[in-house]
Specification:
Layout (H helix, E strand, L loop, with lengths): L37 E2 L10 E3 L5 E3 L7 E7 L6 H15 L7 E7 L7 H10 L6 E4 L3 H10 L4 E3 L5 E3 L3 E4 L5 E5 L5 H12 L2
Parallel strand pairs: 4-5, 5-6
Antiparallel strand pairs: 1-10, 2-3, 4-9, 7-8, 9-10
């Protein structure tokens, strides 16, 4: 299933090289059943994909069934939005405590040439990202179908800057997209929505 989202997704261009993003100060809903992000009325699982992570291990989306999965689109040489999103997602998983073992973060590369395993491992070490965080790499031919499935527009502007949509998706334990974050969100929003789905 291609992730069909609201038309606003086409307008998301929070790519690296833009103004530095800050954690949203929007209050998280108090009601346990209310998402901080935008609900996605998906009844079928997201399109499956399989890519190698920073350690060379093959990570298949469908193999994550039974866990919540955050899917983000990042690149290692980004200097503003990407590292913040990575830190917020990782922080949300850690804040779940033992329940965090049932959550994965899959960061799909938007820079096939620049995101080498070494470059990505450097970011993971420098940001102290945990074991549930998998940065998925590949060639243009391997990554482009994933971008297309999630309606991600990637436009290289130079060797250092890549403009790309920077949404985050939260998939439930059955692999269905349940929450969509069009703009960079803070740890509290990701944490809240993960807790809502873990309780269901």
């Amino acid at each position: 299933m291609k992730v069909a989202l609201v038309a606003a997704l086409a307008l998301v261009t929070a790519g690296c090289g833009s103004a530095v993003a800050r954690e949203t100060t929007t209050s998280v809903p108090r009601a346990a059943a209310t998402f901080a992000g935008t609900p996605v009325p998906a009844e079928t699982p997201a399109a499956d994909f399989a890519l190698r992570d920073q350690s060379g291990d093959l990570v298949r989306l469908s193999a994550q069934r039974g866990r919540l999965v955050f899917v983000a689109f990042l690149y290692s040489h980004c200097t503003d939005v990407c590292p913040l999103i990575a830190t917020w997602l990782d922080g949300a998983v850690r804040a779940l405590g033992p329940a965090g073992r049932n959550v994965r973060v899959l960061a799909v590369s938007v820079d096939p040439s620049g995101d080498t395993p070494a470059a990505v491992r450097d970011v993971i070490r420098s940001r102290h990202l945990g074991s549930e965080f998998h940065w998925l790499l590949g060639t243009q031919a391997q990554l482009a179908p994933v971008w297309q499935s999630y309606n991600i527009l990637v436009e290289p502007h130079s060797l250092q800057k890549i403009a790309h949509a920077a949404p985050v998706f939260l998939l439930d334990q059955r692999g269905r997209p349940r929450v969509f974050y069009a703009q960079p969100q803070g740890r509290s929003a990701f944490l809240h929505d993960a807790r809502v789905l873990l309780q269901r």
